[in-house]
Fold Phage shock protein B.
Amino acid sequence: MEDILVPIFVVGMLFIGLPWLIFHYITKWKTAATLTNSDEHLLEELHAMARRLDDRMDTVERIISADNPDWRPARLTSSDDQDDYGLEQVERLLKERVRK
């Protein structure tokens, strides 16, 4: 009787237990790599904050430029396309996500 049970348990562990264990941890690994709803909400809040800070910086630079014509801003102005490239790309991605 023992000669029959050992091979059945070994075959069961090899063909059922081992694949189940591997696929279980693959699934855990894939779900851990995705963004949750709270992560997406946090990213949207950070994007909005970055946009507001960018607008405030532009306002401060305009005020300083009006007071002191010789002053030159250390960063690029918002009218330059290179300055807002990253934020525009994020906004485009957010709009695409909302459409889906």
About this structure: Helices lie at 2-32, 37-67, 85-99. Residues 94 and 100 are 10 Å apart (CA to CA).
